[in-house]
Write a structure and sequence with these properties.
The complex is a heterodimer of chains A (257) and B (199).
Chain A: E1 3-8, H1 16-27, E2 33-37, H2 45-48, H3 58-62, E3 75-77, E4 80-83, H4 89-94, H5 99-108, E5 113-117, H6 125-133, E6 136-141, H7 145-160, E7 164-173, H8 176-187, E8 194-199, H9 202-210, H10 214-217, H11 222-233, H12 241-249
Parallel strand pairs in A: 1-5, 1-6, 2-4, 2-5, 6-7, 7-8
Antiparallel strand pairs in A: 3-4
Helix pairs in contact in A: 1-11, 5-12
Chain B: E1 15-21, H1 23-32, E2 37-43, E3 53-58, E4 61-67, E5 91-92, H2 94-100, E6 106-112, H3 119-123, H4 133-138, H5 142-151, H6 163-169, H7 171-191
Classes of the chains: A alpha/beta (257), B alpha+beta (199).
The structure holds adenosine-5'-diphosphate and magnesium ion.
GO cellular component, one term (chain A): cytoplasmic side of plasma membrane
Protein name (chain A): Septum site-determining protein MinD
Pfam families (chain A): CbiA
Amino acid sequence: MVEALAVASGKGGVGKTTSTLALGMALAADHDVTVVDADTGMANLCFHTGLADADTTLQDLLLADSDAAVEDAVYDRFGLSLVPCGTSLAAFREADPTRLRAVVAELAADTDVLLLDSAAALGSQSAVLPLVLADRTVVVLQPTIPSLSDGLKVQEYARSYGTETAGVLFNRVQDDEAIDRVAEQAEQYFGGPTLATIPESDAARAARRAGEPLLAYAPDSAAAAAYRRAADRLDLQDRDEDAVADRFRSAVIPEPP
Amino acid sequence: MNGPGATDLEIPRGRLIRSRVGVASALDAAFSRELTGYARIEPDSLLADGEPGVVTFAEGVPRAAYCERGTGDGERRGDSHEPERPIGGDSRGVDALAALAGPGPCSVELYELPADALAEVHDAPEFSVPPGAPAEELADDPALAERTRDRAPADAHDGEASALESFLEDEERIAAIQEEARAEAEQRAAEWGLDDQLE
Ligand SMILES: Nc1ncnc2c1ncn2[C@@H]1O[C@H](COP(=O)(O)OP(=O)(O)O)[C@@H](O)[C@H]1O
Ligand SMILES: [Mg+2]
């Protein structure tokens, strides 16, 4: 195990899943990477990876009476181990979020880098759990005030559980000149560097429509290149495997109300 | 208070056409009815010394902004010897948007005015804002921002520094956001039974 990173943002639609998969594929050049759609309330990794019809997903693993094995929900695609999450509302309601801990512990034992595509809203235990479980976070931002204030808020939530910021990604950037100033200013408030600024990109939208991660669909696009730079700047820290697994298993969380 | 309440910004009160709406629906309404007038924006949140502000419109397109709150380069309110005036002065243009933006809802009233009542303000570059900036920064609505930019006249504001830069310069404001988030996170951790995980 190298590190578990939660990819977080203050709100939905900023490109969290796009970014998680792109970072994952870039990191997969040197590491075994597992990507989990831990955004159980707004799961959409399956649509980015052609796994919308996957038989077994994280949703199944989170059901209290589940007899699915973790490995049943792992799909090898695009050089990654992917754990998609189903989008059934009924299953979401029935899910026991605390089971995520055991699932993540098992996955962590078997991979170098674990990326948790995390919930945007911070309104429930299941939404913050990825921030609790991860070693560090990558915060995805759009260059607007609401997105930055939400990003600062997520960072603070994560920090209160001892999870520091590994870096920041600015996504959907349109104004190249201004973003350098903004990124420099933002660095003073975030615990990690600006990993990259990702341009607004037709390729990113087309990749999503095609059901493929950006780095598979358009590896030569400017956005893909920016994500590879981001992955290079992310200096992963080696964690002790057993300690990580212990942490995931530790502390029994009471059932949600 | 006279009109929207800005001493240096002479705007008559005008005709109230909508009250108690959120910023997003106010900007949307102003756009669709091609409002010439202004929105009076009152932050509901207690965060970071919320003060009221104004965004003016010409035919539904935002033109100018003013906020009674400064953007943090002054002393804090309360250390002042002039209690009735917000410290750090007021803020104008994109700085005013930065002062008004942030998490938490606002209450907005929309007023209609004859175009000539706004001529002076709309001619003053210090108040000017990019047409799409209020939708983007106050309402978090990029689609409305795009439509607004499409309708804006070609010579509309095209300033250098953005509202976002002004926001990021306001260290005090950002510290307040962080403190509030930290307190909220800790309180919720207790509700969710995660308090033993706190550092
Ligand atoms: N850099 C970009 N340029 C253009 N569109 C993007 C970019 N990044 C993401 N998108 C698009 O934005 C939408 C939301 O992205 P997604 O990654 O699913 O967001 P989230 O997981 O944060 O909800 C998708 O349609 C995606 O293709
Ligand atoms: Mg997503």
